[in-house]
Design brief:
Distance between the termini: 48 Å
Largest sheet: 3 strands, parallel
Structural class: alpha/beta
Strand order of the largest sheet: 1-2-3
Order of helices and strands: HHEHEHEHEHHEEE
Length: 209
């Protein structure tokens, strides 16, 4: 909220409502056994929805915290912990434009979110300038490329997808190197390999890909 407030300054009114804690009182049991919402949890969701109905745009910041992610902190589910999913569904039901900002340290299973939330910003665990960076991204000053080196799993048991390119690794002869690099073969003869010269027909340490 601080980053958005700093960005818009006095040009817009920014309101906040804590729709729920990161996890519920029954967590982690509630990840594997459905437990009804408590009166307090339902009241927090209702309060957030009431404020959302008075707003033009909803920015739902959800995800994990440092106590739920890290070494020796395995989970039985990769979905939004606690009552966050119920909160997100209730906010979506208002019909207001909604943006989901994810704060987490690992990929989450966001099947429903990906299907029904029109905009999702993955912020991971940002540093102290994170709020300002998130605000600048939300308002279009920065457009992230979305090139992720990881897989967002569909379920807990899904194995990570590694795209294996069919590349044959073999040593190239100096002649092949000259042809591919467009180097004159006489010039290529002057290329040093360690303390020795590369001769025409010998093998280089370049690999075909």
């Amino acid at each position: 909220m601080e980053g958005i407030q700093n960005y818009v300054d006095s040009k817009a009114n920014v309101d906040f409502s804590l729709g729920g804690e990161v996890v519920d009182e029954a967590w982690p049991e509630s990840e594997i056994i459905p437990i009804p919402l408590s009166n307090k949890e339902q009241q927090m969701i209702d309060t957030a929805v009431a404020k959302a109905n008075l707003s033009d745009v909803i920015t739902a910041v959800m995800g994990e915290d440092e106590k739920r992610c890290g070494k020796s902190r395995s989970r039985t589910s990769l979905g939004l912990p606690g009552r966050q999913f119920q909160l997100l569904q209730a906010l979506k039901a208002t019909g207001k434009p909604i943006v989901l900002v994810l704060i987490n340290g690992r990929p989450l299973t966001i099947n429903w979110e990906n299907q029904y939330i029109p905009a999702i910003l993955e912020a991971w665990f940002p540093n102290v300038e994170g709020p300002n960076a998130i605000a600048q991204t939300l308002f279009g000053d920065y457009n992230p490329g979305g090139k992720l080196p990881i897989t967002f799993p569909r379920s807990v048991g899904q194995l990570g997808e590694n795209i294996k390119l069919a590349r044959k690794r073999r040593k190239l002869t100096a002649i092949e190197v000259s042809e591919r690099a467009g180097i004159d073969r006489k010039t290529l003869c002057q290329i040093e390999k360690g303390n020795s010269k590369v001769a025409i027909g010998s093998y280089c340490t370049w690999f075909a890909r």
